[in-house]
Each structure stands twice: as C-alpha cells, then as structure tokens.
Specification:
With 269 residues, the protein is of the alpha/beta class. The chain contains 10 helices and 10 strands. The radius of gyration is 19 Å and the shape is elongated.
C-alpha cells in the first residue's frame, strides 16, 4: 500500500493484536499507537519489537487517548465494554474510522456503535475473512432458494479460551440464513437443544458450539430436508487471515464518509 495511513491497535499485546500489528507493518501502514491493560507488563514496550520487527519508536500505552493521538483508523478486537469506551474517546478526537472485530455485544451496545457511526466510518464484522464473507453470501442464497421447510443447523468450533457463544461469525451466518428467508434471526433462532423435550420445530435456525484446543475458527452451515443435506463450511487455518482482512477494511474505511459498514461493503460481495 502506498497511501500513508496511521492505525492504532487496541489490545495489541494479545494474539489477535499482534497479528494486526504484524499485518499492518507488512502491508506498509504505520502503527501509530497501541493499548494494553494498565496491569500489563508490556506497557512502554516498542510495538515493532513486540512482533519481532525493528523498533518503530512507538510505545504501548494503557490509555486510548495516547494511543489514538495520531491515528487515522482504530482497530479493535477486544471486549464489548473496552470497545465502547474507546469509541467514545475516538469520536471526541475526530478519528476518521474504526474497525471492530469485537463480538458479544448486546442490543443496547449495538445501538451505541451505530450512534458512533454518525461521526466516523465504522466497519463492524463478526469475521474479517474473505472466505467467511463469501460463505455468508452463499448461505443467504441457499436459504432463499431452499425455502423454510429445510432445517438449518450451524455448528461452530473455536479455541478453549473464547468467551462468547455462539461466535459472532456463527450469528452472522445465522442472520444471513434468516435474511434469505425474509426474516430476522431473533424470530427463527432457537436455544440449544437440552432437556427431555428438545424436539426441533419447523423453520428454526439452531446453533451448536464446541470449544477445544487452539482451533482458530471452524463454521459449518447445514441445510437438511427429509431427502438430502447440503453443507457449507469454512475453516480458518491461521489467525492472520482475520488480521489481513481487517487491514484491508482499514485502508477502505479511511476513504469513506461516516456510516456503519460491514465486510460486504468493503469487498463488494
């Protein structure tokens, strides 16, 4: 990339944060700031050295205001409360754009993000992988073509440390399936099967969750009738796939007017 873009990375010392920093530097963007929790031993460390590269003379901070001082785009894959606190600071500082990969927001928090999008371009996605966003489009199309009489089951697997369930990607795929049928996901999603009477009802979109090992992310959407089953699946082999997608979104978002966007907008899918 030849365009000069300054990015700041929230939680830059975590597994995803380091991937984001590395991807940004590899693609020619400048990392102008990064945050970690006040208790972190990484505070004050050079962000370039953090990912095994030459020093860039930018230190990790425990304050959003310091990390966002010179940034054009804020990238945040942390937790809902921290993301929302950062957005309030970013809006006040006039930062152009934010890329949000954080998952697990409730409806009130989602509304707060949309409100913040009145002042900056926000790209929010449950998954920044190109393959997953293609899968989303295919799921929407399959649900529309197959009709309400086909069962839809979504299975997702992630590493043992993931907090929220179902994953943001699984919910994104469920929303696409519901949209293909002309419905909203809350109208068709069902609770996990459990108890002595857990029969499946017609038209439901059900989720199953597995947590094990260090699985990066595996999502499968299955459509079943009484005669056949069609399954669509995506497996992430390396966390860098999400980081590179987020950096692509950052380069796109910085040129947009304020608004609420997703990866379909970025990729034109």
């Amino acid at each position: 990339m030849t365009e000069h873009i300054n990015i700041a990375v929230a939680g830059c010392g975590g597994r995803m944060g380091r991937q984001l920093v590395r991807a940004a530097l590899e693609q020619g963007l400048f990392v102008s700031g990064g945050t970690e929790a006040p208790s972190s031993s990484l505070i004050g460390r050079d962000i370039g050295r953090l990912v095994g590269q030459d020093p860039i003379e930018v230190a990790i901070s425990d304050h959003v205001s310091a990390a966002a001082k010179d940034c054009d785009v804020w990238i945040d894959f942390t937790v809902p409360e921290a993301t929302l606190q950062a957005l309030a600071e970013l809006s006040a500082r006039g930062v152009k754009a934010a890329i949000i990969g954080t998952t697990g927001f409730d409806s009130a928090q989602e509304a707060a993000i949309r409100a913040a999008a009145a002042k900056m371009a926000i790209v929010k996605a449950g998954n920044f992988s190109l393959g997953v966003n293609l899968l989303e489009a295919l799921v929407r199309q399959a649900a529309a073509r197959l009709g309400d009489d086909w069962d839809i089951e979504i299975l997702e697997t992630h590493h043992r440390h993931k907090v929220d369930a179902p994953s943001g990607t699984a919910l994104m795929l469920g929303a696409a399936a519901a949209e293909g049928r002309g419905h909203a996901l809350p109208d068709q999603a069902r609770a996990p099967y459990d108890g002595p009477d857990a029969r499946r009802e017609a038209g439901e979109i059900a989720f199953a969750v597995r947590r094990m090992g260090d699985v990066v992310g595996d999502h499968e959407v299955s459509f079943g009738s009484n005669l056949e089953i069609v399954s669509l699946r995506h497996t992430a082999l390396n966390r860098s796939v999400f980081a590179h997608g987020a950096i692509k979104a950052a380069a796109w978002a910085v040129r947009q007017t304020p608004g609420y966007y997703n990866m379909s907008d970025v990729l034109g899918v």
